Amino acid sequence: MTCSDRPQKVLNFVLDYPALVDCVSDKEHRERIDPFLGQDSGWEKSDAMVDPTSSIGLSSDEAALRIEI
Predict the structure, then answer these.
(1) Among 10, 23, 50, 68, which residue carries the largest CB count within 10 Å?
(2) Is 5 in contact with 45 (CB distance < 8 Å)?
């Protein structure tokens, strides 16, 4: 393993369920989450495997993403 998996694929799968129940609320929630997902390149840092301080998981965007979720 040389990089972390990007969470967007799993999040989209999970967020599809509320869309079946309340599409208006789902759209608002997705609009709040999307800006925090970022680009794939942030998840492709191979140096994060040996240096946790360089992990994207410690970024402010990822902290905000965890709060939104």
Answers:
(1) 68
(2) no
Range of the domain at 16: 1-37+59-69
Number of domains forming the structure of the chain: 1
Instruction: Provide the residue type at 10 as one letter.
Output: V
Q: Is residue 65 part of a domain?
A: yes
Q: Mean pLDDT of all residues in the chain? A: 75
